[in-house]
Amino acid sequence: MSGSFLGASVVGAASASLRVLVGLDRRGANDDAAKALEQLVRFSFGQVLDVQIEGRDFLGPKSDRPAVFVCNHQNILDILLLAHVFPRHCCIMAKDAFFYVPFMGQFLYLADNIFIDRANAKSAAKTMQFVAAEMKRKKVGIFMYPEGTRSYQSDNSLLPFKQGAFRLAIEGQVPIVPIVISTYHDVCNPSKRIFKGGKIRIKILPPIPTIGKTQADVSSLLNETRSLMLSTLQEISGPPSKLQIKSKL
């Protein structure tokens, strides 16, 4: 898995560097990296991973930007799966610690993705205001994990959502587009470091509009989105495990 992501990071960094030299939008390197990663995943795991996608039309064309895309986060396999559905003309909002990860940090920076210091509320708030304005000015989408960290869940559950994605969507008056990946503890088991493959379902839900909403509506928007994603997760996943996986991959 790490080899596939490393390869995609190198492709993305190279694409971003070339785009800078010829004067193109370097965020297009995210599309290039996603395509490269998807091909690497198909080549490396195509015989064991059966990825089924529903609702791809809700990702929309480039002309549908800006939008905020949110997805549940289970473990490292998510990154490989998202290569199949990563929205075009979209950038990633990542915690600033990723800036220092070899290759990935360089790629994220060169492709003009956004780093946020979640430990500094004042800094994070300013970043959100800047991003909301940037989204509308450049008509770009933003991808975020509202759980904020990997859940490692095996019982078809979600961690509590953080407010950032929903504050951002309301600030920019842009829709939220939920993406749900089915529970896959039986496919990739981090407690035993086992990857045996199997079927994984990804479902993209219809956009949730925010036009007319204010920051006073953040909690209700968050709860609506989380409720939809949780019911979808339970719908597309197999029976929950009685043993919740805690250890990390």
TrEMBL record:
Pfam families per record: Acyltransferase
Tagged with keyword Lipid biosynthesis: yes
Catalytic reaction equation(s): a 1-acyl-sn-glycero-3-phosphate + an acyl-CoA = a 1,2-diacyl-sn-glycero-3-phosphate + CoA
EC number: 2.3.1.51
InterPro entries: AGP_acyltrans, Plipid/glycerol_acylTrfase
Phospholipid/glycerol acyltransferase domain mapped to chain residues: 67-184
Keyword Lipid metabolism assigned: yes
Source domain of life: Eukaryota
GO biological process: phosphatidic acid biosynthetic process
A Gene Ontology molecular function term of the record: 1-acylglycerol-3-phosphate O-acyltransferase activity
Gene Ontology CC terms, in alphabetical order: endoplasmic reticulum; membrane
Key words, A-Z: Acyltransferase, Lipid biosynthesis, Lipid metabolism, Phospholipid biosynthesis, Phospholipid metabolism, Transferase
Domain observations: The HXXXXD motif is essential for acyltransferase activity and may constitute the binding site for the phosphate moiety of the glycerol-3-phosphate.
Family: Belongs to the 1-acyl-sn-glycerol-3-phosphate acyltransferase family.
PANTHER family: 1-ACYL-SN-GLYCEROL-3-PHOSPHATE ACYLTRANSFERASE (PTHR10434:SF11)
Protein name: 1-acyl-sn-glycerol-3-phosphate acyltransferase
